[in-house]
Amino acid sequence: MNMKPRRLARELTFLCLMQSPELPKPQIDLAQMVRGVVGLLREECDEALQRASVEVEQSQTHVLDSEIRAKDLTQARTRLQEGITLTAQAINRLGSVLDLSDRIIMADQPEVQSFVYSLLKSYFAHQPQIDAQIADALVGWQLDRIGRIEHGLLRLSMTELVAYPEISPRIVISEAVELAKRYGGEQSSSFVNGVLRRVLDGAA
Predict the structure, then answer these.
(1) Is 32 exposed, middle or buried (0-12, 13-18, 19+ CB in 10 A)?
(2) Sequence-ordered alpha helix ranges (H) in the chain
(3) Residue 20: what pLDDT?
């Protein structure tokens, strides 16, 4: 499997763990979990399209105001600049829609789904060990007190470290940090990176 499908599989697995990480095993329907996450991505895509449409309409209004309703040159320039800013926002948002659409399409690929199911099964099979190792690596935190984003990413990463020794720990940490930046920002990425580094240091 090349890197792009595997990266998407990690993201989908992380989102699944974020949605229902504590379900007892008899109640777990992995296919339903994945479908639910893909549905959330579709909703996010639709919402982004709607926001982009609104921004384009607002931009057109500002440009029109700059031409026919502005009282003076300063006001015209201000309204025109506002229109340009809204247009730029709409373009950026449409870029994110294209990215989401690609991920939604790729989520149906057998290699993506296979790795997602494998990760989820491995997590639930090793959950006590994974949570214990995370708890041991926390400094000044309790496992049940960390944020859902950080918790989900640590569980995903520890699953790979425990169940997939053929995957380089460097890649596991790098992928976790990138997902933390996407979903939680710099503080989340620093926290996740620090905990995973301590896990590796403790295993060395």
Answers:
(1) exposed
(2) 3-19, 30-64, 73-106, 110-137, 148-163, 169-183, 186-203
(3) 58
Number of other residues whose CB lies within 10 A of the CB of residue 128: 8
Task: Please give the model's pTM, rounded to 2 decimal places.
Answer: 0.75
User: 63-89: string of b/e by CB count within 10 Å (b at 16+)?
Assistant: bebbeeebeeeeebeebbebbeebbeb
Q: CA 187 to CA 100: how far, in whole Å?
A: 24
Q: Identify which of 114, 151, 112, 116 has the alpha carbon closest to the alpha carbon of residue 33.
A: 116
Hey, is 145 helix, strand or coil? helix
CA gap 120, 11 in Å, rounded: 12
Angle between helices 73-106 and 30-64 (to 10 degrees): 160
The residue written with tokens 């930046």 in the block is: 181
Condensed to tens digits (0 to 9), the pLDDT of residues 83-104 reads 888 888 888 878 877 777 777 8
CA distance 201 to 87: 48
pLDDT, tens digit, 9 for 90 and up, residues 138-159 = 877 777 678 889 999 999 999 9
Q: At what angle do helices 186-203 and 148-163 cross, to 10 degrees?
A: 30
